[in-house]
Write a structure and sequence with these properties.
335 residues; seven-stranded mixed beta sheet; three-stranded antiparallel beta sheet; elongated
């Protein structure tokens, strides 16, 4: 049995701590109790405020959903500059399952290029609704033309006359439009570039070509059975030949995506067109360029032709065997 004196000592030690904890607990709980009492007295008003807060949150969430649904995912073209030359991008196109996909991808690149004018030329008897709508929705500065390739120059089955590459007539129409629209004495600077809709373009490429005085050149990837083809450039920064396997002795052994021309040169050389007849496959570029410049006039870009800024990519042909003859899906839906 503990002594009475020890019990008293324990009580004297424990009691003050017990009282201290009790007082602290009451002081912490009292505000909460008073708040709950006020809530009970004004239950309706508080519950209404709580509902209003929840309603505001739900409205905010709904607004966010609506913005995601209605806003475009790409920006409009940059503001027009009075200092930069205009880049006139000429693109021939034709109807096929991947046409809209190809043009959309190209348009999304062009949207980031300042002072750009897109000349889109359809291979058709008349302009199509698909392309008209696509051009309008891009917000780009554009000119929409059309000319149909004669049947005897079109694809027959899986073969095509290599002497008339696809897009030749369409590019020539765009060149004629430029000459009819702009005066040779016009002070407006410009650059002309032939950009097919199945290629991939770096934005840096457009910055490079903007300073073209006559004809600028650069490498193009995935052409001629190589990783890339390129002009040969010496230590003085002059083009002296071509780094290609396919017929390297062509006057200008270069891909259509590998050069740009100053607009004033196009306007001053009225005879310069892509030749339709008597030109072998792979000589289309040469048929135009030899009317404009000589080899020594070429201006190498892309770090003296050591950087690849354009790729000759092609969208894979879609397999649509399950559509059948009558078509399984709604043909009125654009793809």
């Amino acid at each position: 049995m503990p002594k009475r004196r020890d019990i008293v000592a324990i009580i004297l030690i424990v009691l003050p701590w017990t009282l201290l904890i009790t007082v602290w607990h009451q002081s912490a709980i009292t505000p909460l109790l008073s708040t709950r009492k006020e809530d009970r007295r004004d239950g309706r008003s508080n519950s209404r405020n709580t509902f209003a807060l929840k309603d505001t949150c739900s409205l905010q969430n709904r607004d966010i959903v609506e913005v995601v649904r209605t806003e475009y995912v790409y920006s409009r073209p940059p503001p027009w500059s009075d200092v930069l030359p205009t880049i006139h991008v000429i693109t021939p196109t034709y109807s096929r399952p991947v046409q809209k996909a190809e043009l959309t991808r190209l348009a999304n690149t062009l949207l980031h290029v300042p002072n750009l004018h897109w000349i889109l030329v359809e291979d058709s008897q008349r302009t199509t609704t698909l392309v008209v709508r696509l051009l309008h929705e891009t917000g780009l500065n554009y000119t929409h033309l059309n000319v149909e390739t004669p049947r005897n120059y079109k694809v027959r089955g899986d073969t095509r006359d290599p002497r008339i590459p696809r897009g030749t007539i369409q590019r020539n129409l765009a060149l004629r439009w430029l000459r009819e629209t702009f005066s040779m004495n016009s002070s407006q600077p410009g650059i002309v570039y032939f950009a097919d809709d199945d290629n991939t373009y770096s934005l840096e490429l457009f910055d490079e070509m903007r300073s073209t005085k006559k004809v600028s050149v650069w490498p193009v990837a995935f052409v001629g059975g190589l990783r890339y083809e390129s002009p040969k450039v010496n230590k003085l920064g002059k083009v002296y030949g071509w780094k290609t396997v396919f017929d390297p002795h062509r006057p200008f052994a270069i891909d259509m995506a590998g050069f740009a021309v100053n607009l004033h040169l196009i306007l001053s050389k009225h005879q310069a067109y892509f030749k339709l007849r008597g030109v072998k496959g792979g000589y289309q570029e040469s048929s135009l360029l030899k009317e404009l410049v000589t080899l020594s006039d070429l201006e190498p870009k892309a770090a003296n032709c050591t950087k690849v800024l354009v790729w000759h990519t092609r969208t894979e042909k879609p397999v649509l065997v399950n559509e059948g003859k009558k078509g399984f899906t709604d043909s009125n839906v654009e793809i």
